[in-house]
Amino acid sequence: MDKISLSALTKYFSEEKDVYVQNVSNGIVSLAFGEKEEVGYSVPFAPDPVCITSIVPFDLVKKSITFRKSLLRMPTPFLRLLTEEEYQAYFKQKSARIHKPAEELIEETERKQLNLQEKAVDPAQERPDPVTTSSTEPETMDEVLTPRVMQIVNNLNQPVEDGSKIVLSDVIDELSRMKLNLDDLEYLRSQGRFRTVKKWAQDRLKDIEDDTALTAEEIEQKVNPEISTMP
Question: Which pTM value belongs to this model?
Fold first, then answer.
């Protein structure tokens, strides 16, 4: 689902359902649920979408102010709401790329999700803002995305000062020399801001998706062709 309005969100919550979201911010998104915000929940900083209602009851999600703020935040939201079809399609596409069952990928994501909740900050503690992001959680960042990729995407999404200019050819050149993983490419494709960067990542992903007979070693070579051919 693309950007959602308040009226569309109200309609969305008119019937009970599983709630799927994808983190589109620059860090972990912390949410609070319940009348006294006594139930804490953290959305992992990773391209993989999660099902919030697998942990938090639908009624609490529906009534959460911090959750709605994360979806409606302007100019860019912290979270993107997905339909069940979009959620399943994401993992089917990822499954085709890395040759791993979609069900197994979903289970892995759910395990990481549960591990992160165990480390979640107590929502009763004082916080400067009910919806916050953090980029200091090693389990959901270092294991999923390359730190330099996150830094590059963050720089690309910062306002450009007067007189300065982003040289996209330099960005692509640096990315081409880096050892990337599939999640890095997914993140660049969805969050790279500029069409040149997104298309570069999309082309890499398409090469992998088109060749369904690739082994894990061959996938690595497809992701990092420049590095693989170096002596």
Answer: 0.58
**Rounded-to-10 torsion of CA 46, 49, 55, 58:** 140
> Where do the domains of the chain lie?
16-136, 145-231
Query: How would you list the strands of the sheet with 28-33, edge to edge?
Result: 39-43, 28-33, 132-134
Instruction: Find residue 20's DSSP bridge partners.
Output: 51, 82
- The whole-angstrom distance between residue 12's C-alpha and the CA centroid of its chain comes to 22
**pLDDT by 10s per residue, the chain, length 231:** 666 777 888 888 999 999 999 998 888 888 888 887 788 888 888 889 999 999 899 999 998 888 988 898 877 888 999 999 999 999 999 999 888 899 999 999 888 888 877 665 444 444 434 444 444 343 444 456 788 888 888 888 877 666 667 889 999 999 999 888 877 888 788 778 888 998 998 888 777 655 544 455 555 565 666 554 444
